[in-house]
Amino acid sequence: MTKLVLTRTGYTVLEAADGLEALALVEKYREPIHLLLTDLVMPHMSGREVADRVLALRPDVRVLFMSGYTEDATVMRSVESAAAHFLHKPFTIAVLTQKVRAVLDAPAAAPGT
């Protein structure tokens, strides 16, 4: 559903089933990637691990985490420690599109933050 909404909003969306597939896509896709939208809890590796590895390859990528496990302190600590952008599931179409736009429009983080 998220892919459909973002595609209909005008974004080009690359979809991956898990973190390993996402990394493979990032490595082979030659066009700019402006935003990584990833769930924090996924098979094979966490969204935080995916983001760290994507940022190592493409430091200019913006990251937006999402999760429905906001009561889990371990999950939330990985977002808070990075001062990251976060989207709480479930979310509405309006909240999704507004948050994606806000993350893309936000000033770039200083290197190393």
Automatic annotation (TrEMBL):
<dbReference type="GO" id="GO:0000160">
    <property type="term" value="P:phosphorelay signal transduction system"/>
</dbReference>
<feature type="domain" description="Response regulatory">
    <location>
        <begin position="1"/>
        <end position="104"/>
    </location>
</feature>
<dbReference type="InterPro" id="IPR001789">
    <property type="entry name" value="Sig_transdc_resp-reg_receiver"/>
</dbReference>
<dbReference type="Pfam" id="PF00072">
    <property type="entry name" value="Response_reg"/>
</dbReference>
<dbReference type="InterPro" id="IPR011006">
    <property type="entry name" value="CheY-like_superfamily"/>
</dbReference>
<dbReference type="InterPro" id="IPR050595">
    <property type="entry name" value="Bact_response_regulator"/>
</dbReference>
<protein>
    <recommendedName>
        <fullName>Response regulatory domain-containing protein</fullName>
    </recommendedName>
</protein>
<feature type="modified residue" description="4-aspartylphosphate">
    <location>
        <position position="39"/>
    </location>
</feature>
<keyword id="KW-0597">Phosphoprotein</keyword>
